[in-house]
Each structure stands twice: as structure tokens, then as C-alpha cells.
Write a structure and sequence with these properties.
Vesicle_trsprt_v-SNARE_N; Methane Monooxygenase Hydroxylase, Chain G, domain 1; transport; 90% helix
Length: 167
């Protein structure tokens, strides 16, 4: 079961990376290219939602003892999906160069380069933040599992001591 979940995780990671790359390209495109890219991203977002649903089904089939770790992963994947959808909305409504030039009446090349650089940096920061959040979640899960193991060992120790006392 967990191998299916892990393969879904890998597919999800690859798909979200592709989506992120394409979302970054959407504001820079114009006309039919932009429309085609938007359609492709929408299809990939739908595919990612379906993968999340499959992953949820796999988590439901996992025994309750080990379900916690997978549930927290699912929460982080859902957050990532929400961020992707929000980024996509922002990129779709971002003004293209032509619209900006018409509105402002200037070429805006340097400001557009700065804007692109800022967007790239923001995207990089968001990816790093998601990785840090995922790492933190794994650390919390590991700590919880360790606590459960210590409790089980403590109970086992008490049982062994009682058995010794009886003998």
C-alpha cells in the first residue's frame, strides 16, 4: 500500500514542478500561446487534484498506527496544491507587456526585468518554504513515532518487571 502512495507522491512532485514552471511562463506569453499554456496548466492542475484523491484513498487503507505520518503529508500536499492554484490565478490575471505598455505609455524594459527577477526570487522562496514545511512535518511525525515507541517500551518494561516479581 505505501509503495502505491510513494509512487503517487513521486508523480505529484514531478507534476507540481512542471506546473510551477509553466505558471511562471504564463504572464510572459501573449495571445494564443498564453491561452494554450493556460489550458495545459488547467489540465495538469486537474491531474494533480486526481492524484491527491488517489493518495487520500491509499491513506484510508493504511493501518491506523501508521496513518498519522501519511495524513500529515497529505495536509502539506493539499497546502501546496492551494498555493499552486493561487499562483496560477495570479499569473492568469497578470498584465502582459503589451497591456502594460498601452496603459503606461512606456517601454518598461528595466522594470519588467526587475519584475521578472522578483517573481523568480519569490517563486524560489516559496519552493524553499514548502520544502522547509515538509521537513518540519516529517520531524514532527518522527518525534511522535518516537514518543509512541518510548511509551510502548515503558509499558513492556512494566509488564516484564511485574512478571519477574511474580516469579
Amino acid at each position: 500500500m505505501s509503495s502505491d502512495f510513494e509512487s503517487y507522491e513521486q508523480d505529484f512532485a514531478v507534476l507540481t514542478a512542471e506546473i510551477t514552471g509553466r505558471i511562471g511562463k504564463v504572464p510572459k506569453l501573449v495571445g494564443d500561446e498564453k491561452k494554450q499554456m493556460v489550458v495545459n496548466v488547467e489540465k495538469q492542475l486537474e491531474e494533480a487534484r486526481e492524484l491527491l484523491e488517489q493518495m487520500e484513498l491509499e491513506v484510508r487503507e493504511i493501518p491506523p498506527q501508521s496513518r498519522g505520518m501519511y495524513s500529515s503529508r497529505m495536509r502539506s500536499y493539499k497546502q501546496e496544491m492551494g498555493k499552486l492554484e493561487a499562483d496560477f490565478k495570479r499569473s492568469r490575471i497578470a498584465y502582459s507587456d503589451e497591456v502594460r505598455n498601452e496603459l503606461l505609455g512606456d517601454d518598461g524594459n528595466s522594470s519588467e526585468n526587475q519584475r521578472a527577477h522578483l517573481l523568480d526570487n519569490t517563486e524560489r522562496l516559496e519552493r524553499s518554504s514548502r520544502r522547509l514545511e515538509a521537513g518540519y512535518q516529517i520531524a514532527v511525525e518522527t518525534e511522535q513515532i518516537g514518543q509512541e515507541m518510548l511509551e510502548n517500551l515503558s509499558h513492556d518494561r512494566e509488564k516484564i518487571q511485574r512478571a519477574r516479581e511474580r516469579v
